[in-house]
Structures
1.
Amino acid sequence: MANGVTLESLRQSLIRQEDTIIFSLIERARFPTNSPTYNESYVSSPTFSGSLVHFVVKETEALQAKAGRYANPEEHPFFPNNLPPSVVPPYNFTEVLHPPAALININKDIWDMYFKKLLQLFAAPGDDGNYAATAASDLVCLQALSRRIHYGKLVAEVKFRESPQEFEPAIRAKDRDALMKLLTFESVEEAVKKRVAKKAMVFGQEVTLNNNDNKGKYKVDPSVVSLLYGDWIIPLTKRVEVEYLLRRLD
Ligand SMILES: C=C(O[C@@H]1C=C(C(=O)O)C=C[C@H]1O)C(=O)O
């Protein structure tokens, strides 16, 4: 494969990103739900209307855009409109992706999934007033999830290059179901779901000097992490793969 990118190397990166995602969830789980963070009437500003988390994400992205973050094709902003220009010279990232890839950004769906479905599965009900820190830690989770899910573009490119003749008819026919079948590896998905549950046990255990008896208590529930991957992260990654392949011959 050109540029030294292989399906194996991409899968290794996805495995490493599991660590980042699970640690980010563990950090968010330090705080209870903290619902004012998500309440639009909690923020009063003459120049901004929205929730505190919206405010923190938008302002942080503006700062990171200036620092050049979104010049990397692996990074996708949640609020791409009106981002300020970068103050640093562009780094020459190797071009692996077919150019229309730049049009794909499913962060709106990642945002909705995270706030409407995921958060309530791993944040305990309650309010401790740490709203700014809570919003900052939501942002870390969102960025880790977004990076992982949009990695589907690279995975799809490599799968396409391995056997273009298999993909081309389905791409021309715009057959999403056929593409989904072609890119799916069920045994890989099963291994991902098992591994992330195991990682959640290892990373989320209470470490003491005397004994390592956890009494089954973990900082995030391993079965929730597995479900989160199975029901949300993997399906969205595959959606990015399909979206990418549909544009692969443009
Ligand atoms: C990412 C891949 O494509 C699909 C999605 C997977 C995932 O999101 O973990 C795993 C296997 C495939 O069904 C891959 O093949 O590695």
2.
Amino acid sequence: MAVYTDISEDDLKWFLTEYDAGTLLSYKGIAEGVENSNFLLHTTKDPLILTLYEKRVEKNDLPFFLGLMQHLAAGGVSCPLPLPRKDGALLGTLSDRPAALISFLEGMWLRKPEAKHCREVGKALAKMHVAGEDFALKRPNALSVDGWKVLWEKSEARADEVEKGLQNEISAELDFLATHWPKDLPVGVIHADLFPDNVFFLGDELSGLIDFYFACNDLLAYDVSIILNAWCFEKDGAYNITKGMAMLEGYQSVRPLSDAELTALPILSRGSALRFFLTRLFDWLTTPEGALVTKKDPLEYLRKLRFHRQIASAAEYGLAV
Ligand SMILES: Nc1ncnc2c1ncn2[C@@H]1O[C@H](COP(=O)(O)OP(=O)(O)O)[C@@H](O)[C@H]1O
Ligand SMILES: N[C@@H](CCOP(=O)(O)O)C(=O)O
């Protein structure tokens, strides 16, 4: 469960006086997510999500995230809209945390996505990439190669507690990726965390994307590798080529990938698998027992990383190159 910060009813009512959000009827903490504290609010107007920004979110980045949601929504991407305060600001303070109200998005995330859903996610990601082209603000990816090294330094000494031999394996992987990471591919605004729990569906129809708090400027094809990792593997660790094919076709129906992007897909997928392995490993080693958050398994991403090491070309993901 991710409610790191408690709020009192009085404080919340006071916070709401800054907005034209109606009168509070009820509120409850949301059990999902790992980064921030989220609450569902019912008022005499539309339902809202209240987010209190926690440890890994830099306050200076919030105008980028909230502005991006506004920009994408205006560009036809279905995503939550931040509600401005009466003074026009998108951000307030509650329980000593930066806090925002965003619109409630109908739908639910899929526990068992199928190939047809992967196709929709591919399309939606490509639409987001296109809609983000003229977004003026910039945010470098703090979780690319240099950021991975910093994260790794914090976990390295204890990595073998999770699996013997990890210290050597991951150090070598980082060296490899630092040397071979592609530089000349198309860049733009990427979501960077488009996992199943961040995509809502109503029936089989994709109703929207949420959780833009890792969004940044980086290689567009890196974002494709993230969804490939997050959506196209089965619980037993096997890659599902039918899902991969559907996802890549969906993406390319909106934004075709260049030959260089396709060639780079295996190494980008190694990188994105490593990125999620490293944040999970850090959380695994540092989250106190009994904390109200579900820890995610780092080894799931180690297995994906090892899979991508064996891939010789993007054709093996389900696409003729
Ligand atoms: N705009 C929204 N509309 C509906 N539900 C939302 C919205 N934003 C967040 N949620 C709910 O809160 C949960 C956690 O949100 P998320 O942004 O993924 O949190 P975190 O950043 O902490 O990972 C989601 O799984 C969803 O249930
Ligand atoms: N998707 C990441 C963790 C970030 O969680 P989210 O709730 O913000 O999507 C992972 O699976 O490691």
